[in-house]
C-alpha cells in the first residue's frame, strides 16, 4: 500500500515560513521500470488527505486508499499525490482576493507562488513525474477547492485536471465568476461537487454551497466547456465535512484522473 513521505519543515520563501508537505507514492512507483513517469495530483489541506497515523486526528479523505482501490480495479493509472498542510491562517492563505463580509484580507498569492516556484520544481526534480497539464491535477475542498479552481484558471498550462469539492465559489462576492470569463482553450477536465442543500456559516454569513456550485457549473457551461471537460455532482444530504468528501472521492478521482 504505497508510502506517505512527510516533510515537516519544507521552506516557503514567498510566505516567509515553512510548511508540512505529504507525498504519497503509489504501490507501482517502487516496482515500475526506472524510466516510467507518473502523473501528479496536488491537494490542499494536506493534514486531512491521507489515511495515515500522522494525519489529522479526526476523519480524513483517505485519498491513498481510494487511489489504490481505483488502480487495482483498472479505473485509473497510479498517480503521485502531493498534499500541502494548511495552517492556522488558512482562511487568508486560501483567499485569492479579499472577503470583506468577513474582514479577511487575501494572502493567497504567496501560497500560489510557493506551489509554482518552490514545491512543484522540487517534486519534478526528486520524483519521476510526467510533465504537462494533462498529467498534473489540483484538488481541494471548501476554500481549498476555491484555490484549486483559481490555480486551474490562472495556470491552465500547468494544471489541466481541477477538482473542487464543495468549493467556496461565492467567496469575495462571487469573484471567481467575474474572473473566469472564457474557456481556457487548453486541455482541461474540471470536476465540481457539493451537497445539494449544503450550507455553512463559519465567517458571519451563510454560504450556500449546493446553489453556488450549481450556478458556477452553469457559468462554465455558458463559456463553452463541454460535457467531457466538466462534470457536476450534487449529493442529496451532503454536508460540509471530510466524511462527505471522502464518500464522493472515489467517483471524483475516477472522473477526474481517468
TrEMBL record:
Q: Which domain of life is it from?
A: Bacteria
Record-level Gene Ontology MF annotations:
hydrolase activity
Q: By its UniProt entry, which InterPro entries does this protein fall under?
A: AB_hydrolase_fold, Esterase-like, Mycobacterial_A85_antigen
Keyword Cytoplasm listed? The answer is no
Keywords assigned by UniProt, alphabetized: Hydrolase
Protein name as it appears in the record:
Alpha/beta hydrolase-fold protein
Keyword Hydrolase present in the record's keywords: the answer is yes
